Amino acid sequence: MSDPYTRLNDANSLDAALVNARSVVAQIKRDAIKALRSNTTGYGTIAQRLGLTKARVQQIANTPRKAWVAAYAFRDEHGNWHGHPELLPKGSYHDSPSFVPFSPADRYNPLAGQVMQIRYGPVDEDYGVSAYTVQVRQDNGNPLNLRMTHALMDALFGPPIAGSPEQQQWDAAREQRMRELSEAPL
């Protein structure tokens, strides 16, 4: 790459991915240590089994939880909100359009082809922030990759609970899109 701006953008993207990966690893370690710890298994026992010092295990376990700047809701082209649009109070979130039209592998996804308004802000990791990202267009026109909550992913790709009213509603919307695409002229 000869263009310095392209190199810098690529380096920034890689740096953001590394920071994200380090945070995910730290969360996994903290959760694993907390799951291992019990009345009969203390930090010393865990440290010995992992080949770490007791102080290091305590440090990992006591690392504060993090708030992620994450996408947690979106408004489709029909004006309907999905996810949890009321999660954060007004003034503590941003709304930005998705960078490109939504292009899922499932062409019958009812949201396929839409440019959506994405709502994002500081979401506590306890709320279920995934490692998957969505790209929004910032005010300056540049893309910004944001992690998504599990609720947002369910809204984009379909609720996971088979037989639930939400899944039935999703399936009906998917079937409607399938009919629309099959009736569309080539």
Largest beta sheet, briefly?
6 strands, mixed
Count of DSSP H/I helices = 5
Which of globular, elongated, flat, extended, rod-shaped describes the shape? globular
- Mean of pLDDT: 88
Helix % is: 40-55%
Distance between the termini: 40 Å
Q: Please identify the structural class as seen in this structure.
A: alpha+beta
Catalogue the unreliable spans: none
What does this structure look like?
This protein is an alpha+beta fold and 186 residues long. 41% of the residues lie in helices and 22% in strands. It contains five helices and six strands. The chain has helices at residues 4-36, 43-50, 54-61, 150-157, 165-183, and strands at 67-75, 81-83, 94-97, 117-124, 129-137, 143-149. Strands 1, 2, 3, 4, 5 and 6 form a six-stranded mixed sheet that branches. Strand 1 and strand 2 form a beta hairpin. Helix 2 (43-50) packs across helix 3. The protein is globular, with a radius of gyration of 21 Å. The relative contact order is 0.12. The mean pLDDT is 88.
Give structural attributes.
186 residues, 22% strand, alpha+beta, globular
How are the secondary structure elements laid out?
Blueprint: H1 4-36, H2 43-50, H3 54-61, E1 67-75, E2 81-83, E3 94-97, E4 117-124, E5 129-137, E6 143-149, H4 150-157, H5 165-183
Parallel strand pairs: 1-6
Antiparallel strand pairs: 1-2, 1-4, 3-4, 5-6
